[in-house]
Amino acid sequence: KMGFIFSKIFSTIAGQEQMRMIIIGLDNAGKTTILYKLHLGEIVTTVPTVGFNVETMNYEGLKF
User: Distance of CA 15 to CAs 11, 32, 44, Å?
Assistant: First the structure.
């Protein structure tokens, strides 16, 4: 509970709340395409991903 209170106070001071999102699904389901559509705002041509992708983006005051 103490960590939650500190987190809320810090996010109020910093003015930006941080969240984490995970996208899971079957092979060739479009997970990377959705990630880049959210991040860049456009559809990009991708190749099958080996491993994983990590991206940071801001949306309406939230940091993902």
Answer: 6, 29, 31
Q: Six-digit token pair at 57?
A: 């983006």
Let me know how long the chain is.
64
d(CA 36, CA 38): 5
For the ranges 13-17, 18-22, 42-46, the lowest mean pLDDT is seen at 13-17
Query: pTM for the complete prediction?
Result: 0.61
Q: What pLDDT, on a 0 to 100 scale, did the predictor assign at position 5? A: 73
The helix/strand/coil state of 35 is helix
